[in-house]
Amino acid sequence: MAEYQNIRTGRHCAFALHAHLVFVTKYRHKVFADRHLTRLEEIMRDVCADFEVELVEFNGENNHVHLLVNFPPKVALSKLVNSLKGVSSRRLRQEYPELVKHYWRAQRLWSGSYFAGSVGGAPLSIVRQYIEQQNRPA
Questions:
Q1: pTM for the full model?
Q2: PANTHER family per the record (predicted)?
Q3: What is the DSSP string of 60-91?
């Protein structure tokens, strides 16, 4: 099986868990300029640090952002996502009053949905083959 790089350790475990997250603005409105994306990355790095999550990569366009995160097993991705979206929406509203026109119903910047995909390590076919080839006890 492929070697894992950057294995992190916890008190009782070793892990290499990565997820690709995508958040889309409400109604896919074109909200972000470069300065907003730069600030979003800073805010999201801070939120990730609070969860002991590493924000490995961040990028975005005017209506969505992509994050690659390395997270410990104790973190529920849904809670991380909720915090990332909530804190970033609140801070941007406070720091950039001109964005208020893009906030819809209940002051929401982000769509209620998101994408989360597991990434990293070996492809599933290789993992499946590795498991199949393990010797069973006699």
A1: 0.86
A2: TRANSPOSASE FOR INSERTION SEQUENCE ELEMENT IS200
A3: EETTEEEEEEE--TT--HHHHHHHHHHHHHHH
Largest CA-CA distance found in the chain, in angstroms, rounded: 69
State the number of CA atoms in the 13 A half-sphere of 20 facing the CB.
7
Q: Which two tokens stand for residue 79?
A: 């809670």
Q: How far is CA 41 from the centre of its chain?
A: 11
Q: pLDDT tens digits, residue range 40-82? A: 999 999 999 999 999 999 999 999 999 999 999 999 999 999 9
In a domain, 2, yes or no: no
CATH number where 94 lies: 3.30.70.1290
Per the domain annotation, does 137 fall within a domain? no
